[in-house]
């Protein structure tokens, strides 16, 4: 990919890039819909991602081009920017806007992005682009940002410049990922542990349902509101900053305070899912992939029955996986209602798995999935 990008850069800009970077996408292995409840999540970086080549120019402009999108844009070098439309280049432009609050960049730049993360799949293509831009500027201009500041800057771009109220997990995972490692991240404190995640004879199969996630945003906001209702009712007797301060025993003692049975279901998922992350970390540390896979299935079942964010497409994928002998664990990942599922798939079975899954899915849903095989990869880096 690097050689192809350099050749394309030369073709487009008439000169070679002076620096090249790679930033991965991410999946969340377990710990879903608990980030906004102060819970633990377990993301990892994948080997799909974003490549960025860049070089200075003498025209005092920033030129954004991508091999994945037809839109390109050129902006004069100035002290601040505003979002224009919804095109992809707003993500790196927002990084410039944020960086220029503290640093004076006086050199124009030619930029060429390329990526193989399926857009809209829930693998964090936007976070990958943001972190790539932030990492590249920090590295190229020696801006002095600490490693933890890169994902925080990218999150601020997403929140303030793009206008999406996301948490820190996506940006954190693509900045801090390590080969064959997962990150156990406390979304309340940003404390984290790196855990071994050597999949051995298994690969990470990422299955894109190819369903547009039209419901995801509205249902996401609805789930956030339900969790806030539960927190408010529980705080009549206990003092909680967030739901993930509860354990199952404490919830059972105070569950009578939650008057809506649907809200109680949501809360039960949150508490149990947070526990599953700890159990998953223990399983990985012990090299027990079978137990880890069992926890993945349990997570999906909870997201289906208690949190109700899966949908027919994701359920069909996980149902197939549960009956396929070479998969030991599968679950939806991301917000749900479309997007992707992940599975632990025995190496060597990729073609058979893809063909049989798509036959099953076509019959059940009416159109095919897209399957991507990935290892657990590194975070942002110079290439």
UniProtKB/TrEMBL annotation:
Its EC number is 2.7.1.6. Mg(2+) binds at residues 126, 158. It is found in: Cytoplasm. ATP binds at residues 66, 120-126. One of its GO terms (cellular component) is cytosol. It catalyses: alpha-D-galactose + ATP = alpha-D-galactose 1-phosphate + ADP + H(+). Gene3D superfamilies: 3.30.230.10, GHMP kinase, C-terminal domain. PROSITE patterns: GALACTOKINASE, GHMP_KINASES_ATP. One of its GO terms (biological process) is galactose metabolic process. Belongs to the GHMP kinase family. GalK subfamily. Catalyzes the transfer of the gamma-phosphate of ATP to D-galactose to form alpha-D-galactose-1-phosphate (Gal-1-P). This is Galactokinase. The lineage of its organism: Bacteria, Pseudomonadati, Bacteroidota, Sphingobacteriia, Sphingobacteriales. The gene is galK.
């Amino acid at each position: 990919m690097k050689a192809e990008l350099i050749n394309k850069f030369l073709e487009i800009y008439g000169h070679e890039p002076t620096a090249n970077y790679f930033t991965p996408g991410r999946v969340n292995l377990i710990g879903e819909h608990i980030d906004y409840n102060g819970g633990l999540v377990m993301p990892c970086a994948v080997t799909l991602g974003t490549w960025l080549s860049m070089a200075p120019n003498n025209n005092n402009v920033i030129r954004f081009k991508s091999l994945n999108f037809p839109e390109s844009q050129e902006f004069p070098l100035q002290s601040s920017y505003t979002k224009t439309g919804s095109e992809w280049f707003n993500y790196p432009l927002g990084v410039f806007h944020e960086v220029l609050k503290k640093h004076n960049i006086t050199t124009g730049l030619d930029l060429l992005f390329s990526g193989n993360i399926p857009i809209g799949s829930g693998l964090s293509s936007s976070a990958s682009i943001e972190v790539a831009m932030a990492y590249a500027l920090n590295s190229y201009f020696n801006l002095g940002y600490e490693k933890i500041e890169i994902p925080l800057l990218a999150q601020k771009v997403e929140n303030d410049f793009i206008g999406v109220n996301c948490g820190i997990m996506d940006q954190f995972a693509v900045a801090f990922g390590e080969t064959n490692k997962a990150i156990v991240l406390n979304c309340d404190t940003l404390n984290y542990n790196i855990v071994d995640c050597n999949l051995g004879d298994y690969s990470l199969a990422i299955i894109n349902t190819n369903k547009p996630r039209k419901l995801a945003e509205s249902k996401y906001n609805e789930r956030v509101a339900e969790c806030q209702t539960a927190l408010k009712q529980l705080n009549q007797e206990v003092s909680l900053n967030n739901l993930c301060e509860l354990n199952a025993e404490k919830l059972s003692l105070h569950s009578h305070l939650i008057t809506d049975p649907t809200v109680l279901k949501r809360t039960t998922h949150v508490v149990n899912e947070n526990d599953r992350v700890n159990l998953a970390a223990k399983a990985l540390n012990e090299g027990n992939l079978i137990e880890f896979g069992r926890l993945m299935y349990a997570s999906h079942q909870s997201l289906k029955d208690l949190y109700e964010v899966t949908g027919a497409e994701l359920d069909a994928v996980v149902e197939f996986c549960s009956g396929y002998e070479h998969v030991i664990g599968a679950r939806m990942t991301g917000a749900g209602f479309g997007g992707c599922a992940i599975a632990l798939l025995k190496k060597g079975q990729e073609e058979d798995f893809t063909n049989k899954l798509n036959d099953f899915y076509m019959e059940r849903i009416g159109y095919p999935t897209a399957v991507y095989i990935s290892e657990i990869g590194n975070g942002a880096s110079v290439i």
